[in-house]
Amino acid sequence: MSEAEREAPFGDPDGFERLWTPHRMAYIQGENKPSGPAPDDGCPFCRAPGLADAESLVVARGTTGYAVLNLYPYNSGHLLICPYRHVGDLTLLDDAETAELSWLTRSGITALRRAYGPQGFNVGMNLGEPAGAGIAAHLHQHIVPRWGGDNNFMPVIGRTKVLPELLRQTRETLAESWPEA
Predict the structure, then answer these.
(1) By the 8 A CB rule, do 82 and 45 touch?
(2) Neighbour count for residue 178 (Cβ, 10 Å)
(3) Which Pfam families does the record match to this protein (predicted)?
């Protein structure tokens, strides 16, 4: 970027090129975000299980919880493990929910390994808005597959993530790779 472009009147100079991603504006503006903490306030994790799997991007279902693709993934295959029950804290799960959350997490890791061969994973929860939970009222655990070099020049220098396939294709691949109960 030239000095003149950095000083252009349409933004603050910061040295970064721009890759426009208008589809992200929906997330930024709060699309699919609940209007409040109750289940009937538009919670997407309460809504998803009532839809067809292909429509909601649900990959697998259990008795007390399910696995769904993240609509705004950090990496390809980014899964969320959610209890069906609208609860915002891990300590509020009962024993059956806690066990199935663990089983779904383990199964998600197995499916991701079968389908995409990641070399590692980030697994965790953000409990509460101050901890980074985008939807704090409904507990969800992240499974983010990682590959050596996935922090390559695009996110490091280009500040851009590249996802190599559509979410619906990822959902189909992971559903086919999901281990039997």
Answers:
(1) yes
(2) 20
(3) HIT
pLDDT tens sequence across 16-48: 555 555 555 655 666 667 777 777 778 999 999
Check residue 37 and give its pLDDT.
Answer: 73
Helix (H), strand (E) counts: the chain = 7, 5
Set 86, 138, 140, 142: catalytic member: 140
Beta bridge partners of 145: 121
Catalytic (active site) residue 78: no
Which pLDDT tens digit goes with each residue over 55-75?
A: 999 999 999 999 999 988 888
The residue written with tokens 């086919």 in the block is 176
87 in Cβ contact with 93 (< 8 Å): yes
Q: Which residues lie across from 146 on neighbouring strands?
A: 120
